[in-house]
Amino acid sequence: AAPPAPVPPPAPVPPPARARRRPLLAVHRGLRALVLVELLLGVAFGALDVAAPAVADRAGSAALGALPLATFALGSIRASLWSGSARGAADRPPAWRYRAGCAIVALAVAPTLALDRLPEVAVLLALAGAGYGVLNVAVFELLEDVVPPDRAVEAFTWLTTFAGAGMAAGAALAGRLAEDALAVVTVAAVAAALAALWQRVEP
Q1: What does 12-45 look like in DSSP terms, one character per residue?
Q2: pTM, two decimal places
Q3: Model confidence at 18: pLDDT above 60
């Protein structure tokens, strides 16, 4: 008798098609709010890098042009450590601390428009740095609350991309305006605070 015909192997089953996910920024209102605020803050801080040396030069202390930026950094470091560890700060929701930090930055930089003395500007920028430290800690906690855990990297990428774009734009604009660079810092910081206060950044 003839041997039975070989049975062909079953055809491979293609893997199920994965649904194409839309960009997180397109579907998540809370992330869009955070991105807008970070963009405006980026404009403010990019302009600040140009404005601080200009203020020192106008005050006749060009050699101390890094002093305002140094006090800003010091205030930011101290407030970041405090906000990340202090019991009273941790008891506040991250959205509250984020808005408070934005408001402190705006309130601190606004008076610099009327000042010409470098020490006074440096003190106010130390306070602005403290506000930045508070909001910078809070924004990472907010990301954990407002986006799914499996898309946290995408959310962080959106934030850093827009913040970097804002810094580049702020530095370029302040460089063109030169003597009015502090106005760019103030307008952008106030706009960021208003956006944080009137937009929903909670989940």
Answers
A1: PPPPPPPPPPPPHHHH-HHHHHHHHHHHHHHHHH
A2: 0.80
A3: no
